[in-house]
Amino acid sequence: MKINASAIVLIVALSGVSPLHPLHAEPASGLSDITVITVEGEALIEGADIPAARQRALQEAFTAALTQALGAYLTADSFTRNFESIDRGVYSRTQGYIKTYNILNEDTNDGLLALQVEAQVSTEPLQDDLLALGILLDGTGNPVMQVQGTEEGLDLPVSPRMLQERLSQQGFQVQSVVTHPHDVMIQVNGKVQSTNEIGRMGMYGAIVVLDANASWQPGGRTIASAAESANGAGLSVQAALQDAYAKAADKLFPTLLERITSAWQAELNAGRLVSIAIDAADLSEVTAFKRRLGRIFGVDQVDMKSFTPGRGDLVVRFRGSAPQLAELIQMTDFRNPALRVISVDNSAIALSIGLR
Question: Which Pfam families does this UniProt record tie to the protein (predicted)?
Answer without folding.
Answer: FlgT_N
